[in-house]
Write a structure and sequence with these properties.
single chain; alpha/beta; six-stranded parallel sheet; three-stranded parallel sheet; 10 helices; binds nicotinamide-adenine-dinucleotide
């Protein structure tokens, strides 16, 4: 059998970002509004610092205002809550992103829920999750929407297809399963209690793996010709690897995302798209037709 085709997340993200740049420029011309992304980083976590720096750089490159706040690790819950309330009321702020994880002792769920749904560019508030569960319009979490764009790039018809998501986290697996259901796929969610993982995944026309377990999925888990999206990221001495054993699955799947260069680059691209969508909603401009 032929090897799987590689889904080039780097290129797809680059194309999406170029579209966002053009759309931001058009939005600025027609409204005079500069979309602004407020990033909040608490403490000195090195990985979070890198993620936030990349998001800020991407926002600036897209023609948005970079409205960053770096808060001291000792700052209390109520001071962060006050800042979020200020940003929520500030017209210059289109989107608010609270970088997770927060230092110990802070309750991230209650802080995230202070972000108004129209500024929730990470799509993680209870209200945004509720809108997604209902299939109502709202801002959706960036990694799962990136996953959907990668699936769509293969041209597969999701309507009626069998989709399996491995993982049910609030950040990735849960919302990915709802987005697939919204597109009329027949969705099964597997998780750490699933008894026969191989039996479940090998039925999938589309398999999204977000378990956070390096190399969990091998060739035996794959239906021949399936679309396989690997969300996992693990740092090893030999570089980044995913939840899928790439070399093995390459020989059985129809399409596969690499790690790195698959889902990773899509997350920032979708954050930019969400920030522009947020600015549009706040200006009362309907979203353009999908292209
Ligand atoms: P999580 O730990 O919150 O959730 C993992 C899920 O996988 C859980 O629902 C759990 O039940 C399930 N699971 C764990 N072990 C399993 C097993 N053996 N069999 C079946 N299911 C199992 O993780 P998360 O936040 O959803 O992230 C998942 C992975 O995706 C991680 O590797 C993370 O680093 C990566 N990630 C990547 C991006 C990106 O931008 N590429 C973004 C977010 C997360």
């Amino acid at each position: 059998m032929a090897l799987a085709k590689i889904i080039d997340g780097t290129q797809i993200a680059r194309d999406l970002r170029a579209r966002v740049v053009a759309d931001v420029a058009a939005f600025r011309r027609s409204t005079g509004i500069v979309p602004g992304l407020a990033t909040l980083l608490v403490g000195e976590d090195p990985a979070s610092e890198v993620y936030v720096r990349n998001k800020r750089k991407a926002a600036t490159e897209a023609g948005m205002a970079d409205l960053h706040h770096h808060l001291d690790v000792g700052i209390g819950q109520s001071a962060i809550a006050e800042l979020i309330a200020e940003l929520a009321a500030d017209d210059a702020v289109s989107g608010i992103l609270l970088q997770l994880p927060l230092p110990k002792g802070l309750d991230s769920a209650s802080l995230i829920d202070l972000i108004p749904p129209v500024k929730d560019v990470d799509g993680l508030t209870t209200l945004s999750a509720g809108l997604l569960a209902r299939g109502a319009q709202g801002l959706r979490p960036c990694t799962p929407t990136g996953v959907m764009a990668l699936i769509d790039s293969t041209g597969i018809d999701l309507d009626g297809a069998t989709a399996v998501v491995v993982g049910r986290s609030e950040l990735v697996g849960g919302p990915a399963s709802r987005l697939l259901l919204e597109r009329n796929a027949t969705v099964t969610v597997a998780h750490s209690h699933t008894r026969d993982l191989e039996g479940v995944t090998s039925l999938a026309d589309v398999l999204v793996v977000a378990a956070g377990v390096p190399g969990l999925i091998g060739a035996n888990h794959i239906k021949p010709g399936a679309v396989v999206i690997d969300v996992g990221i693990h740092r090893t001495d030999h570089g980044l690897i995913g939840d899928v054993r790439f070399d093995e699955v390459l020989e059985r799947a129809g399409w596969i995302t690499p790690v790195p260069g698959g889902v990773g680059p899509m997350t920032i691209a979708m954050l930019l798209a969400n920030t522009l969508a947020a600015a549009r909603m706040q200006a009362g401009i309907p979203a353009p037709e999908a292209r």
